[in-house]
TrEMBL record:
PANTHER family for the chain: RAN BINDING PROTEIN 9-RELATED (PTHR12864)
Keywords for the protein's UniProt record, in alphabetical order: Lectin
Keyword Disulfide bond carried by entry: no
Organism per entry: Gigaspora rosea
Domain B30.2/SPRY: 1-172
Signal sequence interval, chain numbering: none
Matching Pfam families: SPRY
CDD domains for the chain: SPRY_RanBP9_10
Protein name (record): Concanavalin A-like lectin/glucanase domain-containing protein
Family annotation (InterPro entries): B30.2/SPRY, B30.2/SPRY_sf, ConA-like_dom_sf, SPRY_dom, SPRY_RanBP9/10, Ubq-SigPath_Reg
GO molecular function: carbohydrate binding
Length: 181
């Protein structure tokens, strides 16, 4: 089973474009309504046998309203709904700092994030928890009882929004703190 290495160009909403590297995503909509959400999944699910899986998302441009969600989801999840809003989907959102767990109701979790920030997501299959990082700092456990076949995903609804993912092809901001996993 292969690890996630890029975004899946055939598994995204119409509001998103992806550059030739398969790592940078741009939001192409106006972001004025809930109907203009764009989500993309990675090219492969995270194999649970890897025990720990970590990826980072650089916020290149927060866009007009800062609505960006970073998380993970199952294959069947609707790509026109933000990460965390539906069953089989979880996400940390930059515009409100909330963590969403299979519901449109978020719970306070971490700081807001915006242009220039790097948000990391660690899925720990050893103890079935998930934590996020912001600019290399661990924000604490966001979710417990992790299970299922999960794909990294990102959602945007922010005019001009742009992100770039690092699935491990370059050093992580959190790398210096890896012993804290």
């Amino acid at each position: 089973m292969d690890l996630p290495t890029a975004w899946n160009l055939d598994d995204k909403s119409t509001y998103l474009s992806v550059d030739s590297s398969g790592l940078r995503v741009n939001y192409e909509g106006l972001g004025k309504s809930q109907k203009e959400i764009g989500v993309i999944r990675a090219n492969n699910p995270i194999p649970p046998y890897c025990k720990l899986f970590y990826f980072e998302v650089d916020i290149i441009d927060e866009g007009k309203n800062k609505i960006i969600g970073i998380g993970f989801c199952e294959k069947e999840v609707d790509l026109n709904r933000m990460p965390g809003w539906d069953d089989g989907s979880w996400g940390y959102h930059g515009d409100d700092g909330n963590f969403y767990c299979c519901s449109g109701s978020g719970n306070p979790y971490g700081p807001l994030f915006s242009t220039g920030d790097t948000i990391g997501c660690c899925l720990n299959f050893k103890n079935n928890t998930v934590f996020y990082t912001k600019n290399g700092i661990n924000l604490g456990i966001a979710f417990r009882n992790l299970k299922g076949s999960l794909y990294p995903c990102v959602g945007l609804r922010s005019q001009g929004g742009s992100i770039e993912v690092n699935f491990g092809s370059r050093e992580f901001k959190f790398a210096g703190n890896a012993e804290k996993l």
